[in-house]
Amino acid sequence: MTYYVYLIISKIKKKTISYVGYTKDLNKRLILHNNGKGAKFTRGRLWKLAYSKKYRSKTKAMSEEYKLKKNFKLRKTIKFNA
């Protein structure tokens, strides 16, 4: 089974915010975030996919999601290149 680690961004005024997660179905998850049914942090905003990477195992995807969540320098780079 394949899993995806993703980073989505949303712009509020001049500030760009990001959210990192993992999922089996990337398109469905993005729709859920944009419809207010995703994570509590993402509700009420319009999100755009900025980064995604495919993994073969849930364990590896979860591990990489954790690393991306903690690596603010990489997140900043991705946000401003999107």
The radius of gyration computed from the alpha-carbon positions, rounded to a whole number of angstroms, is 12 Å
The structural domain count equals 1
Q: Roughly what is the average pLDDT, rounded to an integer?
A: 93
Number of strands: 3
SSE-based structural type: alpha+beta
Largest sheet: 3 strands, antiparallel
- Numbering strands along the chain, what is their spatial order in the largest sheet? 2-1-3
Mass-distribution shape: globular
Low-confidence stretches: none
Characterise this structure.
- The chain is of the alpha+beta class.
- The protein has one domain (3-72).
- Helix content is 39%, strand content 33%.
- It is built from three helices and three strands.
- It has helices at 26-34, 58-70, 72-81; strands spanning 3-12, 15-23, 48-55.
- A three-stranded antiparallel beta sheet has the order 2-1-3.
- The longest helix is centred in the last third of the chain and has 13 residues, at 58-70.
